[in-house]
Amino acid sequence: MNQDIVALTIELRLLVYAAFICLLLWLPYILAGIMSHGLMPMLGYGASREEGVPAWAKRAYRAHLNLVENLAPFAVLVLVAHVSNVHSDLTVWGAQVFFWARVVQILVTWGGVPIVRTLAFAVGWVGNLMIFAALMGA
To answer: How far, rounded to the nearest angstrom, does the alpha carbon of residue 120 sit from its chain's CA centroid?
Structure first.
């Protein structure tokens, strides 16, 4: 076994899990589109791709886009904390808050629950601020 391999911290592991969810989250929308329109229209750039796609699939797509937008700042904060050797309860809690809030945000967006969706987004944002605060306090 290679001794140079660094074990993943909780923060890095949650970043990997969030990235994995992001890698999978586009599938429901695309599969619903293929079922609604067929494979060839979904391979193109047709303006009518969203017509006839179920509302839940459109919400899944929006949840994916939202995760893409929020994954970048989370990744930067976690990676900077890692390379700066800033690892504390605050970074762990921040990463956990971000990750689980994003899971909730995805599920309630997919399910069409508006107020909880916004609250989950805000809680995830606070998780990022927690990591930021740990970095600035280091």
So the answer is: 12
3-state percent breakdown (helix, strand, coil) of the chain, nearest 5: 80, 0, 20
Q: What are the CA-CA distances from residue 7 to residues 12, 21, 60, 61, 133 (Å)? A: 9, 21, 33, 33, 24
Nearest-CA neighbor of 37 among 24, 48, 45? 48
Task: Note the pTM of the prediction, 2 decimals.
Answer: 0.88
The pLDDT tens digits of the residues spanning 80-113 come to 999 999 999 999 999 999 999 999 999 999 999 9
Q: Which residues contact 14 (CB under 8 A, 6 or more apart)?
A: 78, 95, 96, 98, 99
